[in-house]
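pasting for the record
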Amino acid sequence: RKATIEDAQLIFDFIMELAVYEKAAHEVVASVPQIRETLFGPDARAYALVCSIDDKPAGYAVYFYNYSTWLGRNGIYLEDVYVSPAYREQGAGKALLRHIAKIAVEENCGRFEWSVLDWNTPAIKFYEALGAKPQSEWTIYRLTGDALKALAEP
């Protein structure tokens, strides 16, 4: 289902679970008020889903739209997909990805893509079983903090 502002704490809790799984909890600087504003505020540019099993929250996904100049069409980028360990192998992850894939098809998006840590073998196997293909010829670059600010200055 589409997440609502009332899910902000739940989404934050899932984010923390994911960060712990990825051995990066120390990197999370987001807060529940930031989640409320950036996912549900008037200027929100990202979207969230919550998946439940037996009326209990099992996982979440966050995505946003990107654009392909080569395709001349929007795409969807999956920022996060996470299912709590107790609910894995019950279809929650596939349901979340299927929901976003349906949105991509309905909105004539040219692609649906995401990144995965190279050590996350269970996720890689899951994605490949869905038919996803790694894009090994691309390397992600990132600017943050002082380097981002320095480039932004005239």
